[in-house]
């Protein structure tokens, strides 16, 4: 004779199909749960709250990287960058007080292009060292290797 797995016996609570208690004792009070931020379940099995959807680790980061790569807008806010440029130019050449808007924009585009290229090179250095975390030594190596052929 084959053995059949018997369902677990309930000793308290209510049945799903009817509202009647399953034991002779009074049902326990339901614990009040703090509301979750995720979406509510629309019904069906269990009546509990549905867990919020979670992406695999790194998916959101890759999505953000792709979005930023497609974007043509500048990443550094213009006002702080312009203030910094004016401060540096005032320190180096106090007689230069006026800047054309196109000159500031060209300077910002060049600066961002340089920083992005440095990020890419330093990330390659980190990957070469079998790491995914960018470290200071990767930046230093990328800057040192990038100086070849550059006038500065």
The largest sheet, given as strand count, sense and whether it forms a barrel, is:
none
Roughly what percent helix? 40-55%
| Uncertain ranges | none
Number of strands: 0
CATH architecture of the domain at 74-146: Orthogonal Bundle
Per CATH, the class of the domain at 74-146 reads: Mainly Alpha
**Strand composition percent:** under 5%
Overall pLDDT: 81
CATH superfamily of the domain at 74-146: Histone, subunit A
Q: What's the N-to-C terminus distance? A: 88 Å
Count the DSSP helices: 4
Shape: elongated
CATH topology of the domain at 74-146: Histone, subunit A
Order of SSEs: HHHH
Radius of gyration: 31 Å
Class by alpha and beta content: mainly alpha
Task: Give short descriptive properties of this protein.
152 residues; Histone, subunit A; elongated; mainly alpha; single chain
Task: Give a description of the structure.
- With 152 residues, this protein is mostly helical.
- The protein has a domain of 73 residues: Orthogonal Bundle (Histone, subunit A).
- The protein contains four helices and no strands.
- The radius of gyration is 31 Å and the shape is elongated.
Summarize the structure.
With 152 residues, this protein is mainly alpha-helical.
List the helices and strands and how they pair.
Layout: H1 59-70, H2 78-92, H3 101-128, H4 136-146
Helix pairs in contact: 3-4
């Amino acid at each position: 004779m084959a053995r059949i797995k018997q369902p677990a016996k309930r000793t308290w609570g209510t049945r799903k199909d009817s509202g009647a208690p399953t034991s002779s004792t009074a049902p326990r009070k339901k614990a009040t749960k703090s509301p979750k931020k995720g979406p509510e379940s629309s019904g069906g099995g269990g009546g509990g709250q549905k867990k919020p959807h979670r992406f695999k680790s790194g998916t959101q980061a890759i999505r953000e990287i792709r979005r930023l790569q497609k974007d043509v807008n500048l990443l550094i806010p213009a006002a702080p960058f312009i203030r910094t440029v004016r401060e540096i130019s005032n320190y180096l050449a106090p007689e230069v007080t006026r800047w054309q808007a196109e000159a500031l924009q060209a300077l910002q585009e060049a600066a961002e292009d340089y920083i992005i290229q440095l990020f890419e090179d330093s990330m390659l250095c980190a990957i070469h060292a079998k790491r995914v975390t960018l470290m200071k030594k990767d930046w230093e190596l990328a800057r040192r290797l990038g100086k070849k052929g550059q006038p500065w």
